Amino acid sequence: MNLRPFTDADFDKLVSAWRAASVVAHPFLTPDFLEAEVESIRDYLPAAETWVAEDDGKLVGFLSLLGSEVGALFVHPAAWHKGIGRALLAKAVELRGDLTLRVFAENEVGRTFYRKMGFLETGRESHKQTGNELVRMELSQGSSTEERTNDASEPERKDG
After folding, report:
1. Cross-strand bridge partners of residue 59
2. 79, 101, 113, 117: which could form a disulfide with 152 (CB 3.0–4.6 Å)?
3. Contact 160, 26 (CB under 8 A)
4. 110 close to 155: Cβ distance less than 8 angstroms
5. Cα 34 off chain centre by
6. Is residue 150's pLDDT more than 50?
7. More confident residue, 110 or 157
8. E strand or H helix at 139, and its extent?
9. pLDDT tens for each residue of 6-31
10. Per-residue pLDDT, 40
11. Mean pLDDT across the chain, nearest whole number?
């Protein structure tokens, strides 16, 4: 597996990984909403520091950081349970230290992964576009992602 900075040439493959993970982790979101999010992602990426994960030369996941906030973390479901989500989060910790994020309350896959990685819930709020509940979570530098178990699923976030 290789982590590297996102390039514009990665966009279609990034969206493919995002869409596959979103369908599994966000079954409560409408297809119309997910389709509209593709354009939102296109606008979002220039403002974020984005890293992609490649496995056997294929883009299988990505992480976007907005300062110390994990704005997006998605891994294609076919690549789950290979440590890719953990590697992307470890990169984020290396770059930023303490991290924050928001994940849909209904996204049990993502919430379970983040809890196993050491994130703690710090509050809740409403997602403006859908009205769904978001859970705010934080990871303190004091607990290393290397100490976490390797059995969690690994998608997540672009508000969710």
Report:
1. 54
2. 113
3. yes
4. yes
5. 15
6. no
7. 110
8. strand 133-139
9. 999 999 999 999 999 999 999 999 99
10. 87
11. 88
Name the band, by pLDDT with cuts 50, 70 and 90, for residue 142: low
Distance CA 147, CA 144 (A): 6
pTM: 0.84
Residue 103's H or E segment, with its range, is: strand 99-104
Distance CA 21, CA 56 (A): 19
DSSP state letters, 37-73: HHHHHHHHGGGSEEEEEEETTEEEEEEEEETTEEEEE
- Per the DSSP assignment, residues forming a β-bridge with 136 are 102, 123
102-124 exposure pattern, b = at least 16 Cβ within 10 A, e = fewer: bbbbbbebbbebbebbbbeeeee
103, 110 contact by CB (below 8 A) = yes
Residue 36 pLDDT > 50? yes
Residue type, 126: S
Edge-to-edge order in the sheet of strand 49-55? 2-5, 49-55, 58-66, 69-75, 99-104, 133-139, 120-126
Both tokens assigned to 98 = 């303490």
CA dihedral 102, 28, 90, 85 (to 10 degrees): 180
